Amino acid sequence: MFGFRLPTVFARRSVLGVVSGGSLAVCGPHYVAGGMGGVFSEDGEGDGPVDVNTLKVGGTIQLGGFTVKRMGAAGGEANEGGSPKGEKGAHHRRNAADGTLAGGFVNPWPSARDPVTSFWLMLPKLLAARVFGPKAAAPETSASAPPLRPVDFGRLTRATQTPGAMALTWLGHAAFLLSSAEANVLLDPCLSDRCSPLSFAGPKRVVQPPCSLDELDVDVVVISHNHYDHLDLDVLKKLHAKNNNIVFFVPLGNKSLLTAAGISNIVECDWWDSFSLSKTTVKTGPITITCTPCQHFSSRTAWDRNETLWSSWHLATSSKRFFFGGDTGYRSVFEGETEEGSPTCPAFREVRARFGDTDLSALPIGAYEPRHLFSPIHCNPNDAIDVHLDLGSKKSVAMHWGTFPLGFEGVMEPPIALREAMKKRGLKEDEFLVVDVGETVEA
Ligand SMILES: [Zn+2]
Fold it and tell me: Which residue of 9, 318, 335, 412 has the smallest Cβ count within 10 Å?
């Protein structure tokens, strides 16, 4: 979620939206049949060079340093286009009149609702939250940012040399490096000073990244959606310029933004699209990357709300399963409503049903105040615990807090609220971890 561009109506064709939209790259409204991998495939469409995005289930292509194979959706459904029989899933927006595809996407669950119906109703609520909402850090801490520590690169190297190992390093906000023998995967690397279309305005980071981009060894980049605190185009361009073998995974509709920036090797996925990536040097088998649902929205300008898809991601090696929550809400709780009994997002229970329990998860806990505006799109710590339990996650790591001041709660409040909620619900302390920026956790 990007700063003041609050849920739903804020990014519509509103006055503020137009002002804040600025002059930035506009995402194409639909997914484009993608750039060529330029290499052979088996079981792709036709002969000759084949695009990874048009591969049939079982088809393979060489991309970056990997042999990439399109898998059937987990759970056994055919999955060319995101649903059985090639039909588009319920998250594809449709015209009410005749049910034809309208372009763009929706959250297809009762747990996702719009808090207000217009920008003009939203504005006074926002102003009230700014004036009367919680501002200061909770009294238990005087810190203004999470602790920062240097990355232990020796530990990461050991993880990549140990069969079956998986190490997760928090780079701040939703940015992580997942290290394993199968691949080094960088997730939502927003490392710029501001998460904004403008270099001089917008939410500014309160803690520096724990290392420079040049220090990171990266094979794959995974992006959850196009908000500026998750898709940092500047960083993606630098990564591609440094190593044009990197493979980029994005949800539907986001490929054109990267392609326009000169980036190649892009795999664009609908929910449940799944690809396995194998390196000839790795004997333990491939890493399988699956685009999974979550409850959020997208917008990069004032004019493109929900035209591109948002997602969480599931990454599995032969011995470990990792889940990346991206940006997600879990229930919608508005003024005068109670938390109890409100419908909850079924996506994470579905992930567990298809893949089994998760060994390690990165789940968002911040940017939740005011609750009546943010709940549809951002988990609060209690929601994050629900997601953790729905996934059957053996160990979760908190993210989406302590880096950019996005919600109106105090910067240091989310981990305190998380620990309180964990205590109340009987979770063990090492089940859901709050780590330092730069800290590594092993699955
Ligand atoms: Zn977002």
Answer: 335
List residues bridging with 194 in a β-sheet.
Answer: 204
Supply the range of the domain harboring residue 117. Answer: 8-29+109-442
What spacing in Å lies between the alpha carbon of 297 and ligand 1's midpoint?
A: 7
**Considering its fold, how many domains does the chain have in total?**
1
Q: How far is the CA of 357 from the centre of ligand 1 (A)?
A: 26
How many A from CA of 332 to the centre of ligand 1? 16
In the reported structure, the alpha carbon of residue 341 is separated from the centroid of ligand 1 by a whole-number distance in angstroms of 25
Q: What is the pLDDT of residues 330-366, one digit of tens each?
A: 999 998 899 998 999 999 999 999 999 999 999 999 9
**Distance between Cα 325 and ligand 1 center (Å):** 11
With H, G, I as helix, E, B as strand and everything else as coil, classify residue 179. strand
Q: Report yes or no on 212 lying in a domain.
A: yes
d(CA 209, CA 91): 34
Cβ–Cβ under 8 Å, residues 196 and 185: no
Query: Residue 146 above 70 pLDDT?
Result: yes
In a domain, 368, yes or no: yes
Distance, in Å, from the CA atom of 92 to the CA atom of 412, rounded to the nearest integer, reads 37
